[in-house]
Design a protein that fits this description.
single chain; 132 residues; alpha+beta
Amino acid sequence: MNKRINFNLLASIAICTIIFSNCKKEEEDKSAPVVNITLPVSTQMYNSGDTVKIKGTVTDNEMHEMLIEIRNDANDSILYSETPSVHDLSSYVINTFWKSKVSTHTNATIKVSVEDHAGNNGTVIAKIHIMP
């Protein structure tokens, strides 16, 4: 009986040690994910029907989630949205696209946001203009 209690006690201590060491590691992480967009370049112009290519890279010790969005600046409506699976990755290559479709001159913002497990956020934006 004592051996069983000792085993359970040791198992509990081991689990607590793992949990607390992981939490401590996350608390020490003060660095935001590094996001780099290579395409499109900011202020790039498109025509309705053009393909807007979004390319770049993201690096971090351990990513949690990522969001890629294109929003209409005039009314904040979402023109495109994607949530790539980046959980627990240390790097990710962005290579996606959106086929533009607008009926009026549209200024839009491309935003790539990444959060890591410690709650640090890395965000990059690029402004584009789309003509009908």
